[in-house]
Amino acid sequence: xDVKTLCLGVLSMGERSGYEIKKTVEESFHxxxxxxxxxxxxxxxxxxxxxxxxxxxxxxxGRPAKRVYGITATGRDLLxxxxxxxxxxxxxxxxxxxxMYFAHLLPAERLAAVLDTMIARFRDGLAADLDHYAxxxxxLTAGQRFALGYGRTVVAAALDYLERHRETLLDEVTVSxxxxxxxxxxxxxxxxx
Length: 193
What we know:
Layout: H1 3-11, E1 16-17, H2 18-29, H3 37-49, E2 53-60, E3 63-71, H4 73-85, H5 95-101, H6 108-136, H7 142-174
Antiparallel strand pairs: 1-3, 2-3
């Protein structure tokens, strides 16, 4: 799925500025999709040129006018066709997991700091998710509640895994030889639970 489809989907819930689309993505899509201003604004411009969204200037008191976008009938049609034809894929991209793959090359202090940072981020993220869900529950569709619940479940499982296996990883990595190959057993390799 591309950013244009994401923008159309968000706009199907009501008019928004590019900033408001990014905020929606950060609050509701952060478990499974990232989009920044550098991709949202070009996508909106392309959608507007194609007639899939309509933009208008909205005056703001004491600030420059903002551009607000709404989905058009052709945009709604395109969104529907795209969603029906979209092949479901689950793609995970994690710089954290790349670091962990090469954990044996990190100094123990750095590895411990990375693990602690991720544990804290997952805990904070879950707290923010629960707050967002509680504030918006009555306004969410069944699909939105499902997606947010799925994301929370994945993060909770990742947090649980990190907390249960942090010490094992640190112990095994500190027992590596000079070549960086672990000397200790393969407790983590077998711990894919």
